[in-house]
Amino acid sequence: MQRRVPPVLRACVALALATLCAACGGGADTAPAVGRLAVSLSRARVALGSPVDVSYTFTLAPDAPALGTRKVFVHFLDANDELMWVDDHEPPTPTAEWKPGQTIEYTRTMFVGRHPYVGAASVVAGLYSPESGDRLMLSNEDRGDRSYAVAAFELLPQTESVFVVFKDGWHPAEMVGEGASRVEWQWTKKEATVAFRNPARDVVLYLQADNPSGSANAAQQLEVRLGDQVLGTVPLRRDGPVVQKIPITAAQMGSADMVELRFIADKTIVPALEPGGAAGDSRELGARVFHAAVQ
Questions:
Q1: 53 phi and psi, to 5 degrees?
Q2: 171, CA 20 to 30 Å: which among 60, 65, 89, 94?
Q3: pLDDT on residue 27
């Protein structure tokens, strides 16, 4: 029986072969550039574990060919070019719809990984095929593998950010993937609380959450409360999490040493009680939360 090669492995093999062939030929990569990429961060100094807005600008060449389906790879490297974490993604406007000479701009909120490193860091990015792993040539300065250093910033210790404690109403953390590609989340019950030390100034709550369940009984929104105040309502999509930003003023937080927020799901499900659900999963599930950070 023929074994199916995983797409990730195929991509790695394709990239390695392309690099090897270029080396054997002894020449530079002469493929025409399809455009140029510029990346900027909303802050030049970013604490570990904190959110930061990353803006992307793709300027396509006037004679750029049809790109087909491509993804953006975004790798965050330390001062020794060691990979810390990634934020690979599909642009909001699919690359198959990009036109020659067009400028594509968008901003994503990215959560800095809790990597055991502080100091100078850089962002390396580019475009690649999710099927073959082939990378497109850009007019930025090539690092040698069709990846491009597009931004630099400084990583600060996690103590420089507002530390958020997950208190009551949370299930144990779950994760998928390993190393730089690891993704972690926690499910809430009907109601869950987080707390942080009062910074005595206006802040923004960054909340990334969803509910992938297809059940009609699954939660569709998550209400955020501070005492009796409703700070905002977060929609819970089934097709992946989005980041919601909820401003909190110093006046709303008052003078208490600690601030406690409640996350309240409109509905909950128990997988074991759902048709076709996991028979042994008796948890009460509200929202799946990937990040809850205060900036």
A1: -90, 130
A2: 89
A3: 58
